[in-house]
Write a structure and sequence with these properties.
Largest sheet: 6 strands, parallel
Length: about 260
């Protein structure tokens, strides 16, 4: 009987030691992962997706439906710094706060999201490769997306390009308290990517408001010049500006190395 009890106690204590060791290892591994984790956060239109024609045509379709004069491509590009309702209000009246924007924006979102496809909202050439190669080299990198378009559109574009499974968080202007250039959306992205901090995140966009939001959120902003805005306007709001997707990939890798050793 004594031997049996001693044997049972030995098993119990042995199990406790193993469990404690495993718990300590898991805690240590979690700490290492948190230290190495980095967030790569993207704007969508003009950054990931070459969707100008979709947005431009949808805008003019809504304006024409409502008996309003159509806009030029240049006007559309300028307006992309706004959220959809304020952009439509600006196009029509010059006043971003005009209430007409709400109804026009609702109509636009319905049409815009419905027309998303692999052809109308395709990623820029090389973007898929960038996402894959960065993730392969740094598996602990976590992707998120934030746009001033509606959240349904963001999710539709990522799904159409078959990358929705690697973007853990996908937000639009209607998912956050305040749109870019306010930092609210980026800070919400970081909070939903549990374990990340803004200083270990990078936000990539094509609009001056993207750079302003990144700065306000306390993260590095990288500006791209293949979207709706001129290189000069992008350079005013970003610390780093890139002109090709290969250049963007090289800069991301450089920044991840710095984060890894910080």
């Amino acid at each position: 009987m004594i031997r049996t009890d001693f044997f049972l106690l030995t098993l119990v204590f042995g199990s406790l030691i193993i469990n404690c060791s495993s718990f300590k290892y898991n805690l240590k591994q979690k700490a290492v992962n948190m230290k190495l984790s980095a967030g790569i956060l993207f704007d969508v239109d003009g950054t990931l997706s070459d969707s100008f024609q979709l947005g431009f045509d949808s805008t003019n379709a809504v304006l024409k439906r409502n008996g309003i004069e159509e806009i030029s491509a240049d006007s559309y590009h300028q307006g992309t710094r706004y959220t959809t309702p304020t952009r439509l209000a600006w196009h029509v009246t010059g006043d971003t706060n005009n209430p007409i924007g709400e109804e026009l924006g609702r109509q636009f979102d319905e049409l815009y999201v419905e027309l998303v496809s692999p052809s109308t909202a395709a990623f820029y050439d090389g973007m898929h490769q960038l996402l894959t190669e960065v993730k392969d080299k740094y598996p602990i990198v976590r992707y998120g997306a934030l746009s001033n378009a509606c959240g349904a559109y963001v999710r539709a574009v990522l799904a159409a390009n078959n990358v929705d499974h690697i973007f853990e968080v996908q937000l639009g202007a209607d998912d956050v308290a305040a749109p870019k250039p306010h930092p609210d959306g980026l800070l919400k992205l970081v909070s939903l990517l549990d374990g990340l901090v803004p200083s270990k995140c990078i936000y990539i966009g094509d609009s001056p408001t993207d750079g302003q939001a990144a700065t306000a959120a306390g993260m590095l902003g990288i500006g791209v010049t293949w979207g709706s805005h001129s290189a000069e306007s992008v350079a005013k709001s970003f610390k780093i500006v890139v002109h090709t997707i290969q250049e963007l990939q090289d800069v991301i890798i450089t920044q991840l190395k710095e984060i890894e050793h910080s």
